[in-house]
C-alpha cells in the first residue's frame, strides 16, 4: 500500500507511538491520534504529523468502553475523509504481584490490550472495504511471541499480549477476502521506561545479542513494512534485537 493520500488511525501515540505517527506522515498519510489522558503529548504528536505536511486530528477516547471505540473510528474517518490503516498501540503495563491482582486489574488490562483491538478492527473494517482494502496492525510483545512469561508480576499484560497473536491470526483469516491485511508487531528492548537506571539500561543491552536498545524508529520501520507488504497477513513480527535467542 502506498500511503500517499491515505489515512491512519493510531492509539497510544506517545513515546514510540509518536515516532510511528511521524513516520506514517512522512510517507504521505494523514493521521488521527487517540489518547486517554495525555492531551499535551497527543498535541506534540500531531505537531510532528503537520510538520511533515500532513493533516492531523486528535481524539480523547476511553478504550475500555465499547461505544467509545466505535465512535473513535467513526470520528476519525469523518474528520479525515476515510480510513485505510489502523495501528493499535495503546497498552496497560502495570506490574503487580499475583496475590494482589483483582478482577478489575485483569479486566481493565484486557479491555485495552485485547477487547479494544477487536472493537477497533470491527469498526474499521467497513471503512477499509469501501477503499478496496486496508491494513490493521496490532501490538503484542516479544515474550508471548517467544512463548514464555519470563517476568513475574505482569500476568494480565502477558495474557493480553499473548491473545493479540491469536486475534491477529483470526482477523487475518476473516478479512483476507476484503484485502484487509492484519499483522502484529512484538517489540523487545526498544525504549527504556523513564525511571530506568543506568545499570538497568546496561543490563538489558548486555542481555540483547545486538548489544543495545533498538530505539523508536525500529518499530516505525516494522509498521511501515506491514503497510507496504501486500502478501503478508496473520504474522506477529518480533523486533527485539535477537533477545529471544539468548
Characterization of this structure:
With 246 residues, this protein is α/β, with parallel strands linked by helices. It has a single domain (7-239), classed as Rossmann fold (3-Layer(aba) Sandwich), CATH 3.40.50.720. Helices cover 46% and strands 15% of the residues. It has helices spanning 16-26, 39-51, 66-80, 103-130, 142-145, 155-175, 198-206, 216-228, and strands at residues 7-11, 30-35, 56-60, 85-88, 134-139, 180-187, 236-239. A 7-stranded parallel β-sheet has the order 3-2-1-4-5-6-7, with helices on both faces. Strand 2 (30-35), helix 2 (39-51) and strand 3 form a beta-alpha-beta unit.
Q: What is the radius of gyration computed over CA atoms, rounded to a whole number of angstroms?
A: 17 Å
CATH class: Alpha Beta
CATH homologous superfamily (4th level) name: NAD(P)-binding Rossmann-like Domain
Q: How big a fraction of the residues is strand?
A: 15-25%
What percent of the residues sit in helical stretches (DSSP H or I)? 40-55%
Overall mean pLDDT stands at 96
Strand order of the largest sheet: 3-2-1-4-5-6-7
The overall strand count is 7
> In angstroms, what separates the terminal alpha carbons?
35 Å
Please, how many helices? 8
Q: What string, H for helix and E for strand, traces the elements in order? A: EHEHEHEHEHHEHHE
Structural class: alpha/beta
Number of domains: 1
Low-confidence region ranges:
none
Q: What is the makeup of the main sheet?
A: 7 strands, parallel
What does the overall shape look like? Answer: globular
CATH architectural group:
3-Layer(aba) Sandwich
| CATH fold node name | Rossmann fold
Amino acid at each position: 500500500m502506498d500511503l500517499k493520500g491515505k489515512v491512519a488511525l493510531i492509539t497510544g501515540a506517545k513515546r514510540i507511538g509518536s515516532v510511528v505517527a511521524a513516520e506514517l506522515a512522512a510517507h504521505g498519510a494523514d493521521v488521527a491520534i487517540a489518547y486517554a489522558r495525555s492531551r499535551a503529548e497527543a498535541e506534540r504528536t500531531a505537531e510532528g504529523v503537520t510538520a511533515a505536511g500532513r493533516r492531523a486530528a486528535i481524539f480523547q477516547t476511553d478504550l475500555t468502553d465499547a461505544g467509545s471505540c466505535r465512535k473513535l473510528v467513526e470520528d476519525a474517518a469523518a474528520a479525515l475523509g476515510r480510513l485505510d490503516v489502523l495501528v493499535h498501540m495503546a497498552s496497560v503495563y502495570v506490574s503487580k504481584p499475583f496475590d494482589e491482582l483483582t478482577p478489575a486489574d485483569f479486566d481493565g488490562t484486557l479491555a485495552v490490550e485485547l477487547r479494544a483491538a477487536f472493537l477497533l478492527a470491527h469498526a474499521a473494517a467497513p471503512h477499509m472495504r469501501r477503499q478496496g482494502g486496508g491494513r490493521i496492525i496490532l501490538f503484542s510483545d516479544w515474550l508471548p511471541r517467544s512463548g514464555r512469561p519470563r517476568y513475574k508480576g505482569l500476568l494480565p499484560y502477558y495474557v493480553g499480549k499473548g491473545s493479540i497473536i491469536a486475534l491477529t491470526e483470526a482477523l487475518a483469516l476473516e478479512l483476507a477476502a476484503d484485502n484487509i491485511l492484519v499483522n502484529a508487531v512484538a517489540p523487545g528492548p526498544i525504549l527504556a521506561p523513564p525511571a530506568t537506571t543506568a545499570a538497568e539500561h546496561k543490563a538489558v543491552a548486555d542481555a540483547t545479542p545486538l548489544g543495545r536498545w533498538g530505539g523508536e524508529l525500529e518499530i516505525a520501520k516494522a509498521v511501515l513494512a506491514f503497510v507496504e507488504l501486500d502478501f503478508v497477513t496473520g504474522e506477529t513480527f518480533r523486533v527485539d534485537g535477537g533477545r529471544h535467542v539468548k
